[in-house]
Design brief:
246 residues; alpha/beta; Rossmann fold; six-stranded mixed beta sheet; four-stranded antiparallel beta sheet; 25% strand; binds adenosine-5'-triphosphate; binds magnesium ion
């Protein structure tokens, strides 16, 4: 099976600084990957390059085994920004979720089907008519994720999905990610809060100063995280690295 996403020799130079330096990685189909690294390591810039929001200086990006130009990537790869509330544009949750598919020029029935399915997947049934401005932080992030699901992307990238969330909202987002994983989506979550969710992932990428420093199965390489200043509790086993009691 072709990988969902393959990146070869991706570099991003700004001025004389290499923000990303020959990053190569493979995301298998249906994989749930964590991308960790210190502040400034290049995680968000990597996501922006993958999505097609920023033109890399070098490298190639393939989806399902075929090289994908920026336009294709904009369509097939979804990016949930850290400040999910910035993505909310409409007067109700369901209208907001419909915004993406409407812009794709889909028919009314298809939009309705996708909106309903995304609402169901994110467990937002009771919130469909509510104004997004009145949602809790966790619900808001679920709404942003639902909006992206309605566009039926191949790959979902999330930048710091736990930032500024309290304990219950964090659990809500972890459950939402688990659901996406079960549904077979290929996912990369950028976060340095490894102790909250790493046990749910199968793949771990660690970035350091623009370089992909480590890459492998999360359960096999998670103990390297402290070398890169990513906190995990002393003596924690892989299964301990979740806030969700399973
Ligand atoms: N337009 C720009 N000009 C110069 N430097 C930039 C520009 N955009 C990003 N950078 C630099 O690129 C580096 C990587 O930034 P990036 O946002 O990808 O880090 P990050 O790993 O997401 O960090 P954080 O955990 O703090 O979000 C940073 O040092 C940043 O200052
Ligand atoms: Mg960042």
């Amino acid at each position: 099976m072709e990988p969902a996403l393959q990146i070869d020799g991706l570099s991003l130079q700004i001025g004389d600084r290499m923000i990303l330096d020959h990053v190569s990685l493979t995301l298998e189909k249906g994989a749930f990957a964590a991308l960790c690294g210190r502040n400034g390591a290049g995680k968000s810039q990597l996501l922006r390059c993958i999505k097609g929001l920023r033109k890399p200086s070098a490298g190639r990006i393939s989806i399902d085994g075929s090289e994908a130009d920026a336009k294709t990537r904009m369509k097939r790869i979804a990016l949930v920004f850290q400040n999910a509330e910035m993505q909310i544009v409409s007067q109700s949750v369901e209208k907001d979720i419909a915004f993406g598919p409407e812009n794709m020029g889909l028919g009314k029935e298809e939009i309705a089907r996708r909106v309903e399915s995304a609402i169901h997947l994110m467990g937002l049934e009771g919130r469909a008519k509510q104004r997004p401005q009145t949602l809790s932080g966790g619900e808001l992030r679920k709404c942003a994720i639902a909006g992206i699901l309605a566009m039926e992307p191949d790959v979902i990238l999330l930048d710091e999905p736990f930032a500024n969330l309290d304990y219950p909202s964090t659990l809500t987002v972890i459950r939402a990610l688990d659901t996406l994983h079960e549904k077979g989506y290929s996912i990369i979550v950028v976060s340095h809060e490894a102790e909250k969710f790493l046990a749910h992932t199968d793949t771990l990428f660690i970035m350091d100063k623009g370089i992909l420093a480590e890459s492998g199965r999360s359960s096999e390489i998670f103990q390297k995280l402290p070398e890169y200043d990513i906190f995990i509790p002393d003596g924690a086993s892989f299964g301990d690295l979740t806030w969700l009691k399973r």
